[in-house]
Amino acid sequence: MGPPNEPSPLPPRILGLDVGSKRIGIAVSDPLGITAQGLDTLRRTNRRTDFEHLHGVIERYSVSEIVVGNPLHMSGDAGSQSERMAAFAELLRQHLKVPVHLWDERLSSAQANRLLRDSEASLRQRAHAVDRMAAVLILQSFLDARAAR
To answer: Is residue 126 over pLDDT 90?
Structure first.
């Protein structure tokens, strides 16, 4: 008999980000790349500290790529916020050395607020959870689209 078969390593995870001026909602895919789970929201301080935190998340979860919510206008056109996210995504690529995708987030924050409102979460709980929920919705949408290919 030969050596026992080693299990193949699980695919690396994907990180989803809902980037705002004060907070970054963070979600990570499960090891099979099927579902998104929210992580603690990052309260932004400065770019260096924010990137150090994200680097730690990338190492902890073996992240191979990042999905950043792209705030397009409802028409689908890019605006100033979308341009800021494109610039932020480029900085992530340079500093964290992983592929970064921009993903349409037009409805994620509104959907997150609706889901949290329907769950009867208090206004205070909602304010703390909406960024994480939006990151989960962005990442889940990306994972679903990738699985459908």
So the answer is: no
Q: Is the pTM of this model over 0.85?
A: no
Q: Which two tokens stand for residue 147?
A: 């699985």
**Cα–Cα distance for residue pair 100/67, rounded to 1 Å:** 6
Compute the residue count for the chain.
149
**Residue 98: predicted pLDDT:** 95
Which fold is adopted by the domain 13-148?
Nucleotidyltransferase; domain 5 (3.30.420)
E-state strands within 87-131 = 100-104
Sign of the alpha-carbon dihedral angle for 106, 139, 15, 125:
positive
* Rg of the chain over all Cα atoms, to the nearest angstrom: 16
The Cβ of residue 67 has, within 10 Å, a number of other Cβ atoms equal to: 28
